[in-house]
Design a protein that fits this description.
Length: 364
């Protein structure tokens, strides 16, 4: 593995949501949180389907599995690793059961190679790999120590970014920690171990090219009242790019986004983009459909709006903040999201969303 490939993997994988891994029992308890669990993300990517030569029937059956497990998976994104692990483990069993019943030995072996490549240096924390490569405890502990340093540096950087504090120095430290972790492969592994590892990884796969790595968007939970539209479903909107935003009409931060939502609706409604608002109440007045309708008219919100007085969709999506915007592609998969005001303190969240939409409009 080249420095460029491994470094890109370390940076890219830090941006992915938690996913399901394999042979988790082979990772010691103190190191489990350090090993990227990326099998779910990989299985959602069409490029992986092509690499594994999955048949159209296999893909259809895989999507049936996603319909059952993607909701619980996506809801975990805002929880701590301690809260995530037991649920991820149960989902893991379902994924491996599906793979055993619906894929060939060759497909599973290739998928395992790609998963190891996606885990990058952290794969060496797995005891199964340690046995295969004959790593001693000192070698594995050195990799674990460097992984913890990388995690600490990335956590400090993330906190600084979220709080709006200067982060240039922290960004340099995070990059240096990731590079040190990568460089350890050449320094810690013996030549025979490195050779055997390369054999186990198989042909290199470009993980960074994967575009669709997130779950299917949760289907809308039916509600009694819709504004500006008949009741909609994401299944019924397949073939269109859908911008789903959660808001509350008395939320000041939501008001800051309204002009952008109106622009998107006016600019794109004839181009295959549907803006859907989900009014989720925070106050007593926001639970009144009449008040919701009046506020929408006052703000000139003419796109479809779901009046979810029971907050069922908020729960289904595992949402945590007003406002939040989600981008759903033509096939019903989540591709991007933004929490909070789109232009808060100079942020360019609207441009991020718009770039994603433009890319999705040209996808099949």
């Amino acid at each position: 593995m080249t420095i460029r490939i491994v470094y890109l993997l370390l940076i890219a994988l830090a941006l992915l949501p938690p996913a399901i891994g394999t042979q988790l029992e082979s990772v010691s308890s103190e190191n489990r949180s350090l090993v990227p669990r990326q099998l779910m993300a990989l299985l959602h990517a069409p490029e992986i389907h092509q690499e594994l030569k999955l048949s159209s029937k296999q893909v259809t059956e895989l999507e049936s599995l996603f319909a059952q497990i993607d909701g619980p998976w996506f809801q975990l994104r805002n929880q701590s690793p301690q809260q995530q692990l037991p649920i991820l483990d149960s989902l893991d069993l379902r994924v491996h059961s599906w793979l055993a019943e619906n894929t060939t030995t060759e497909q599973r072996e290739r998928l395992r190679q790609i998963e190891l490549q996606a885990q990058s240096v952290r794969m060496l924390l797995g005891n199964d790999l340690a046995v295969e490569l004959k790593l001693d405890s000192m070698q594995q502990e050195r990799f674990a120590k460097l992984a913890r340093s990388t995690e600490a540096a990335q956590s400090a950087l993330q906190k600084a970014v979220m709080s709006g504090e200067p982060s240039d120095e922290l960004q340099s430290k995070a990059k240096a920690a990731a590079k040190a972790e990568h460089d350890a492969v050449g320094k810690v592994l013996k030549p025979e171990q490195a050779r055997r590892l390369q054999e186990m990884l198989g042909e290199s796969f470009e993980i960074a090219k994967l575009k669709r790595i997130y779950p299917m968007a949760p289907e809308f939970v039916a509600v009694e009242d819709w504004l500006n539209s008949k009741p909609l479903t994401l299944k019924g909107l397949r073939g269109k790019v859908v911008l789903v935003h959660f808001y509350a009409f008395q939320c000041h931060n939501c008001h800051a986004n309204f002009e952008i939502y109106r622009r998107w609706h006016e600019q794109w409604r004839e181009k295959g983009v549907v803006v859907v608002g989900i009014q989720t109440p925070e106050t007593t007045q926001e639970r009144d459909p009449v008040a919701v309708k009046s506020a929408a008219a006052e703000r000139k919100l003419e796109f479809p709006i779901m009046v979810d007085v029971a907050s069922k969709n908020w729960e289904a999506w595992g949402n945590t903040m007003w406002p939040t915007v989600y981008v759903v592609d033509k096939n019903g998969y989540l591709r991007q999201w933004w929490q909070g005001e789109l232009n808060w303190k100079g942020a360019t969240g609207d441009k991020t969303i718009e770039q994603a939409v433009q890319q999705l409009l040209v996808e099949p």
